[in-house]
Amino acid sequence: MSRPRITVLLFAVVCTAQLAAPLSMIWRHERTLRTGTAFKVQTEPVDPVDAFRGRYVAVSPFVEVVEAPAEPLYGEVWVELETGPDGFARARRATAKRPDGPTAIRGTMSPPREQSGGPARVLLGLDRYYMEESKAPAVEHEYAGRARRGAGRAWLVIRVRDGMAAIEALYLDGNRAEDVLARPQ
């Protein structure tokens, strides 16, 4: 094979590799949204603009751990999500290694809230709900305002598949965030 042909072939291989990486990331995210298991996850408000990715609503989703670990376990953990009696996702237990189930995802475990006697929480690595550029600031304002007033509840619907989680929707008092702006207050 001649030198120019090898150069062109190597160039084509490098270009293909550069395209394959972002396309596989997009494919995994979209596949999770289409075929993943849906869970309602509680969230707390956390001003967000990402110069590279646009406007979003900052969220801090978490799940509560039903069974306390035998030994203290903090930092990065794996949890398998299930739906609790209240309709929200919860974690049966937190472990250092990945469980076998299809709804297992990684999170960060915080110590139990001893003052309130509440269960330990696992913060999920999802912190941004991206939406239409013109609507995100108004939804962020509404979301944070409701939290300050203690009015209403906010939650996310996430999809989980093979260790990957993706946010499907943000709800404020049972209505999709995008629809809250359309309703007269």
Offer a quick outline of the entry:
This protein has three helices and eleven strands, in the order H-E-E-E-E-E-E-E-E-H-E-E-E-H.
- The oligomeric state of the chains shown is single chain
Q: Helix/strand/pairing class, anyone?
A: alpha+beta
What's the story with the biggest beta sheet?
11 strands, antiparallel
Average pLDDT reading: 80
Question: What is the 3D shape?
Answer: globular
DSSP summary, beta strand count? 11
The N- and C-terminal alpha carbons lie at a distance of: 72 Å
**Uncertain ranges:** none
Task: Please give the count of helices.
Answer: 3
Order of helices and strands: HEEEEEEEEHEEEH
Report the β-strand fraction as a percent range.
Answer: 35-45%
Helix content: 25-40%
Radius of gyration: 20 Å
Number of domains: 2
Strand-helix topology:
Layout: H1 3-35, E1 37-45, E2 49-50, E3 54-64, E4 75-83, E5 89-95, E6 104-109, E7 121-124, E8 128-130, H2 136-149, E9 154-161, E10 164-172, E11 175-176, H3 177-180
Antiparallel strand pairs: 1-3, 1-9, 2-3, 3-7, 3-8, 4-5, 4-6, 6-7, 9-10, 10-11
List keywords for this structure.
185 residues, alpha+beta, 2 domains, 11-stranded antiparallel beta sheet, 3 helices, 11 strands, 28% helix, globular
Can you walk through the features of this model?
The chain has 185 residues and is an alpha+beta fold. The protein has two domains: 1-35; 36-180, no CATH class. The protein has helices spanning 3-35, 136-149, 177-180, and strands at 37-45, 49-50, 54-64, 75-83, 89-95, 104-109, 121-124, 128-130, 154-161, 164-172, 175-176. Strands 1, 2, 3, 4, 5, 6, 7, 8, 9, 10 and 11 form an eleven-stranded antiparallel beta sheet that branches. The chain is globular.
